[in-house]
């Protein structure tokens, strides 16, 4: 997902009428981000912007423009607030039970099912079945990862990749900061700046090392090596270690993303007449070495939206480790689990039985309840917590974006926003809809031991569509 450029905001007085109009017009006009046209958000992506207050000033150099800047403005704070104050009668829980009960009994959902539907304004339960039962969440655990990193870091926080020199400038170290979104164009810019800094000092031959020491513990996710869903979890990689031209979804992955990144950097330096007399080799950056150049990821809120929309596993693990680093814990699977748990505890969430063994949901040791997921969504809709808003704006839009682009039960296209989750025998869906009475509803449906994704996914989509007007 990408940052906002313009926002279309509804006034509080026109909130209910505006929501009704949006529901009627959305199919023709395209998907909305609770008041924001998605097309404008996509247009803003090309400019690297993160919100109304975070635009590059005229005349700034590219390197300065990439450096961390003041926090961006939160996305569309007024619309969710307006949706939280309906003036029409409340939804009848009995009617929801009549609509959802038979759908939840669909054989395609297998024998293990739980569900929660709540009013996002009040947190009041409108429908529930085994809401507190902790189940394998698959990728819906990314909602927890998102809330944790957003609560732990500044909205302006960007992940750096740096080049540090030895005191004599004869050796340089490429230092990974944990940015899986680093791509070849940004790497080329980093090499351009590094080569210029070296040539300015009369240096054309260097020793190159690369430093991945920011991350601790195992590189290989418990799902195993050689899996197309995730690369080795390392602090330095280009294009998330993908060996093809893809930018999302499964892809062949490098067994050595950090080494590949360093070798690519060598090649880019050589284009500028800077060559290596050895390496690249793993090594530690000099503790007080002069900084030559740096490149930065998009701000964390933008990374969160991208992670949720595309269900990006590599980015999810990186953001879990950013949570660990922000809370002074080791950037490892264990450190990230402790950090995410701590941040969610501070948000006063129902964590009974919960476990966050990884950030992506690929680990079957993960456990969350339907109640936890809907409470997370309620927190993200709270006007008092604008830092959590990207949890909502990053959710895929049914029939339009991300992992829901090819999924929409009849009448739900553009109106359901939800995070998907799929493992063998596990299918989940959690997100938001606006109800007939103008309320923002948060929902979570979890199913285990499902016979097949082809049977479970349509059943989940029908459950979400049943909440619509």
Automatic annotation (TrEMBL):
Residue spans of biased composition, Basic and acidic residues class: 34-45
Gene3D superfamilies assigned: DD-peptidase/beta-lactamase superfamily
Segment forming the signal sequence: 1-28
Molecular function terms from GO: serine-type carboxypeptidase activity
Record GO biological process: peptidoglycan metabolic process; proteolysis
Keywords associated with the record: Carboxypeptidase, Hydrolase, Protease, Signal
InterPro entries listed in its UniProt record: Beta-lactam/transpept-like, Peptidase_S13
Pfam families: Peptidase_S13 (PF02113)
Membrane-spanning ranges: none
Domain of life: Bacteria
Keyword Protease part of the UniProt annotation: yes
Chain residue ranges for the region called Disordered: 32-81
NCBIfam families registered for this protein in UniProt: PBP4 (TIGR00666)
Family according to the record: Belongs to the peptidase S13 family.
Protein name: D-alanyl-D-alanine carboxypeptidase/D-alanyl-D-alanine-endopeptidase
């Amino acid at each position: 997902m990408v940052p906002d450029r313009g926002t279309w905001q509804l006034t509080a007085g026109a909130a209910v009428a505006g929501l009704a109009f949006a529901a009627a017009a959305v199919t023709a006009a395209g998907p909305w981000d609770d008041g924001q046209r998605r097309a404008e958000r996509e247009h803003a992506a090309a400019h690297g912007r993160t919100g109304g207050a975070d635009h590059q000033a005229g005349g700034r150099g590219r390197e300065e423009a990439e450096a961390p800047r003041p926090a961006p403005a939160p996305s569309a704070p007024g619309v969710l607030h307006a949706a939280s104050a309906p003036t029409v009668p409340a939804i009848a829980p009995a009617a929801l039970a009549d609509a959802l009960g038979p759908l939840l009994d669909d054989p395609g959902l297998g024998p293990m099912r739980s569900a929660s539907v709540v009013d996002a304004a009040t947190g009041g339960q409108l429908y529930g079945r085994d809401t507190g039962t902790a189940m394998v969440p698959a990728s819906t655990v990314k909602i927890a990862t998102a809330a944790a990193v957003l609560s732990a870091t500044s909205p302006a926080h960007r992940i750096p990749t740096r080049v540090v020199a030895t005191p004599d400038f004869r050796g340089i170290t490429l230092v990974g900061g944990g940015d899986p979104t680093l791509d070849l164009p940004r790497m080329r810019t980093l090499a351009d700046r590094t080569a210029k800094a070296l040539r300015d000092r009369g240096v054309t031959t260097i020793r190159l090392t690369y430093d991945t020491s920011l991350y601790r513990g195992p590189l290989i996710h418990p799902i195993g090596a050689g899996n197309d869903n995730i690369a080795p979890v390392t602090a330095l990689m280009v294009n998330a270690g993908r060996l093809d031209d893809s930018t999302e979804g499964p892809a062949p992955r490098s067994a050595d993303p950090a080494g590949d990144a360093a070798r690519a950097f060598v090649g880019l330096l050589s284009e500028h007449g800077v060559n290596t007399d050895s390496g690249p080799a793993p090594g530690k950056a000099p503790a007080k070495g002069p900084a030559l150049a740096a490149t930065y990821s998009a701000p964390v809120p933008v990374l969160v939206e991208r992670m949720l929309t595309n269900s990006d596993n590599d980015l999810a693990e990186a953001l879990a480790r950013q949570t660990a680093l922000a809370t002074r814990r080791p950037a490892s699977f264990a450190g990230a689990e402790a950090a995410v748990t701590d941040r969610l505890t501070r948000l006063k969430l129902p964590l009974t039985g919960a476990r966050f063994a990884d950030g992506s949901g690929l680990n079957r040791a993960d456990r969350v309840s339907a109640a936890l997921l809907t409470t997370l969504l309620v927190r993200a809709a709270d006007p008092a917590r604008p830092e959590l808003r990207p949890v909502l704006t990053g959710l895929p839009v049914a029939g339009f974006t991300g992992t829901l682009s090819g999924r929409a039960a009849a009448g739900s296209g553009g109106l359901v926003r939800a995070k998907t989750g799929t493992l063998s025998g596990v299918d989940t869906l959690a997100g938001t809809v606006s109800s007939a009475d103008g309320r923002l509803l948060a929902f979570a449906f979890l199913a285990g031991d499902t016979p097949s994704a082809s049977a479970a996914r349509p059943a989940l989509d029908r459950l979400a569509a049943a909440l619509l007007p």
